UniProtKB/TrEMBL annotation:
Gene field: purK
Keywords, sorted A to Z: ATP-binding, Ligase, Nucleotide-binding, Purine biosynthesis
Gene Ontology CC terms, in alphabetical order: cytosol
InterPro entries for the chain: ATP-grasp, ATP-grasp_carboxylate-amine, ATP_grasp_subdomain_1, PreATP-grasp_dom_sf, PurK, PurK_C, PurT/PurK_preATP-grasp, Rudment_hybrid_motif
Organism field: Mycolicibacterium parafortuitum (Mycobacterium parafortuitum)
Designated name of the protein: N5-carboxyaminoimidazole ribonucleotide synthase
Length: 402
């Protein structure tokens, strides 16, 4: 139905489903390539809708809206994974270049399917089971003999839909509640971990793959707050194993675009895959300032089947997420930015144009290391900068007038 041939006269058009910050930052990368990102946003005041003139207003669950966005687009891609698979299949049948293709994307949408497929591929994952009754959950808990995690099979993000159950009683009550609401759930072992890592890669339809250095992600209440790039004290062996695993997953699943593989590093030094995301990802925000090619440019390159960019780091970098404070400060964001720049001239600020709400991701700060700065100092500064932007308070009590 739609011709996706490339016209020499006009730049390619990438259409992205979702108007959040990932689309906003992809639009920035599109500008540099002489392109204009088209987005499907629910509201005109969403992050990405504020910055691109090519906005279609509508829902990602409305096939007609999806078709409208796809019209004439060279590639059709995502800032979130919530588009129903049957709609994506319909678009593919229309001839739309869906990237990543639905057969790959479903592994970022459905955690149970993902766990099964990765097990089949021989990729290490936590022990898991499908849960269709409370009995299933009890049987799994007894078999594993340790604490368990209940997850909704679909629709979770930023820790929503993930319950770390304290004991079997809690497992039962959580499972009962979900099943009563008709929500599909699964159970898995609670991993004794040293820390969380992320291996970010990109793959093009041509089959080229590229991996950024493996990073450590720090979560609070299920939300990523800090990313350390590269992951400190990661052995070269484990780092390469993580990158190779991510590249292998990307090629086995036929991913097109950026793939984030969220990993657990267990207390005994093994890697386990937690989650897959097939789009630019919070663990890659550091690449905007700390790598030769940002994940947003790379995602465009990949979905357009351009040669991929150099993924090497310019220097160690720490990213701090700016999360809305419990109480929105009286000081304006403008003034907060002003103060931050006065104190930290090297802070790279990325704000998403979002209204402040407690816990909401409203921006991030990257601090790229100088020649001699330690990771500890970088982290302290990035977290201090991010906390300042959200709370208008310096964590060390610094007073500019003192
Ligand atoms: P989401 O879809 O919200 O990103 P995840 O599956 O990534 O959900 O889980 C969110 C967080 O919960 C993880 O980053 C991790 O901190 C914790 N978590 C998830 N699964 C496990 C597990 N099996 N063992 C221990 N912690 C887990």
């Amino acid at each position: 139905m739609y011709a996706v041939s490339r016209s020499p006269a006009s730049p390619p058009v990438v259409a992205m489903i979702g108007g959040g910050q990932l689309a906003r930052m992809t639009a920035q990368a599109a500008i540099a390539l002489g392109q204009t990102l088209r987005v499907l946003a629910v509201r005109s005041d969403e992050s990405a809708a504020q910055v691109t003139p090519d906005v279609v207003l509508g829902s990602h669950t409305d096939l007609e809206a999806l078709r409208q966005v796809a019209k004439g687009a060279t590639a059709f891609t995502f800032d979130h994974e919530h588009v129903p698979t049957e709609h994506l299949d319909a678009l593919v049948a229309d001839g739309v270049n869906v990237a990543p293709p639905p057969g790959a994307l479903v592994h970022a949408q459905d955690k149970l399917l993902m766990r099964r497929r990765l097990s089949d591929l021989g990729a290490p994952v936590p022990r898991f089971a499908e849960v269709t009754s409370v009995q299933d959950a009890i049987a799994f808990s007894e078999q594993v003999g340790g604490p368990a995690v209940i997850k909704t099979v679909r629709g979770g993000y930023d820790g929503r839909g993930v319950v770390l159950a304290a004991d079997t009683d809690e497992v039962c009550s959580v499972v009962e509640r979900y099943l009563a609401d008709g929500v599909a759930v699964m159970i898995e072992e609670r991993v004794a971990m040293r820390r969380e890592l992320a291996a970010l890669v990109a793959r093009s339809p041509f089959g080229q793959g590229a991996a950024w250095p493996v990073v450590e992600t720090v979560q609070r209440d299920g939300i990523c707050v800090t990313v350390l790039a590269p992951a400190p004290d990661l052995s070269e062996e484990l780092g390469s194993a993580a990158s190779e695993l991510a590249l292998r997953i990307a090629s086995s699943l036929g991913v097109v675009g950026v793939l984030a593989v969220e990993l657990f590093e267990t207390v005994d030094g093994q890697l386990l895959v937690n989650e897959l995301a097939m789009r630019p990802h919070n663990s890659g925000h550091w690449t905007m300032d700390g790598a030769r090619t940002s994940q947003f440019e790379q995602h465009l390159r990949a979905v357009l089947d351009y040669p991929l960019g150099d993924t090497s780091a310019l220097a160690p970098t720490v990213m701090g997420n700016v999360l809305g404070a419990p109480e929105i400060p009286a000081m304006s964001m403008d003034e907060r930015v002003h103060h931050l720049f006065a104190r930290m001239p090297d802070a790279k600020v990325h704000l998403y144009g979002k209204e402040e709400r407690p816990g909401r991701k409203i921006g991030h700060v990257n601090i790229v290391g100088g020649p001699a700065e330690s990771m500890t100092s970088l982290r302290e500064r990035a977290e201090r900068a991010a906390h300042w932007l959200s709370h208008a308070q310096w964590t060390d009590g610094w007073d500019p007038h003192a």
